[in-house]
Design goal:
Length: 239
């Protein structure tokens, strides 16, 4: 095996440093030793992404983070993960680099359909459900997705997941299994990454965290030597 490790960059497009650290920790756990996981977040911008306006700023932060990593001296990342459930800037990111770029929503929905028939998304605020619904349609999961549930737990309340927040999210996941007939739960926020195990134990069904799913899939693509197609849509944009 080459001594050069596989490098995956996780991009949290909000400015929360504790959330970025949680995301990095999950990534490293999934990737295991011998894979270099870095997690970055912007120094300026929204502290959480919960609106369409913040989504646009997040998309810009994603594209900038990829550009910076590619321009930096030393080897560039072999893959990038957009660690925000709206997958902000995913298409632009795929124009920016030939390295695979995975969004956590897209990766989580794919993973969910590999281990069950029906999934429900359990997420933060009701106002984000429109974006989640758009992504379900865009990725073609409208048959598999049987529920989109908001908990009204804001993103930043997940920084230190307190018992109250965990209880509300657990109740929502249990309701999804019971009422939506979901047999898999998809977590709708990168800040829920550390709740995956707890929720799986509470619900008895697979709980998919998109951060973990996208790191696993990114690693697979890198090992397969598969990069983003540069033909047509994802060709590099004009300078
Ligand atoms: C996320 N926002 O994963 C999304 C979740 C959401 O700052 N990180 C954020 O509520 O849409």
């Amino acid at each position: 095996m080459s001594a050069d490790p596989i490098r995956i960059q996780l991009i949290n497009p909000n400015t929360s440093v504790p959330m970025t650290e949680k995301i990095r920790a999950t990534g490293q756990l999934v990737a295991g030793p011998g894979v270099s996981i870095t997690a970055v977040c912007p120094s300026k911008g929204p502290s959480s992404i919960e609106s369409h306006t913040e989504e646009i700023l997040a998309a810009q932060a994603v594209v900038e983070a990829i550009g910076e990593a590619e321009r930096a001296s030393g080897p560039s990342p072999d893959a990038h993960v957009i660690a925000c459930f709206g997958d902000p800037g995913l298409d632009a990111a795929r124009e920016t680099t030939g390295a695979p770029v995975l969004g956590i929503a897209e990766a989580a929905m794919h993973a969910a359909t590999l281990v069950g028939r029906h999934f429900s998304v359990v997420t933060t605020l009701d106002r984000t459900l429109g974006r989640a619904e758009d992504l379900v349609l865009r990725y073609g999961f409208e048959r598999a997705c049987v529920g989109l549930r908001a908990t009204e737990v804001p993103v930043l309340a997940l920084e230190e997941a307190e018992a109250d927040a965990v209880a509300v999210i657990t109740d929502s996941a249990l309701a999804a299994v019971r009422e939506d007939r979901a047999d898999v739960i998809v977590l709708g926020c990168a800040g829920m990454t550390d709740l995956c195990q707890t929720l799986a134990e509470a619900t008895g069904v697979p709980v998919i965290d998109g951060v973990a799913a996208s790191v696993g899939m990114a690693l697979g693509l890198v090992r397969m030597g598969t990069r983003t197609s540069r033909l047509r849509e994802y060709a590099p944009p004009k300078a």
